[in-house]
Amino acid sequence: MTGVRKMATGGEGSAMVLTTMRMFSRAIVEGASEEGTTVLAITDSILTTSTDEKTRAATLQSGSQLRGQRVRFHVSPDGMVAMLQGAGPAPREVAQVVSLMPTTFPKGAINVGESWMRDMALPVGNGLGAQVAGRLHVTFRLDSVTRAGDLAFVSMRGEMQPASGPGAASEAVLEKGLVNGTMVIDQKRGWLAESWFSIAMNSAMSLPPATGVLSMRMQMRITQHMHTLDKR
Prior knowledge:
By secondary structure, the chain is mainly β. It is built from two helices and 14 strands; from the N terminus they run E-E-E-E-H-E-E-H-E-E-E-E-E-E-E-E. The protein has helices spanning 53-66, 92-99; strands spanning 2-7, 12-16, 19-33, 36-50, 70-75, 81-83, 115-122, 126-127, 130-131, 134-145, 151-162, 173-186, 191-206, 213-227. The strands form three sheets. It has an eight-stranded antiparallel beta sheet, with no helix packed on it. A four-stranded antiparallel beta sheet has the order 3-4-5-6. It has a two-stranded antiparallel ribbon with strand order 8-9.
């Protein structure tokens, strides 16, 4: 995350924070029907680092809270992931990540080279310096499949747009964002075998005059890689 402050005196100041997280978790199928699949996700361990001391302390605390966390999800046939009602409390971070997952799969059979689109509302909530409130418009494309048809390679490109109406003056508000990614889907398992995502978000914040800061602009870049391993 990179932030630039514009001071009332006319000067500017900038800062950058780099944070990394490596998570090891298990996905256990508990049940399946025509309506979808129930999956229990268990977080075994989390490793975090940060170049900022305050952020490092916060990430260590968050990692400690997530370690051993058990969350149940419902995965629809179209790839939509939702937390089950009555499954117990879940950390805010988990709830926000799940709500950001778009409905992945097309409604019907498609051929290699064809595309489909999904549109969804982003949840309202502060995340890494930006009030994520708006809409995400995503275009998926089936790039190729293996000869046996076991694996499907899908690319995606999405655009985040802010919610209509003014944001709170004392909070960061999303201005725009871009999402790019590639997914390898195991068609026999009905699950992601591997994925790469790149997210870039711009946000702005107006501060009270007493702070001496007229405004603050932030740019957040997230790179995520997920790899699924078979149980040994």
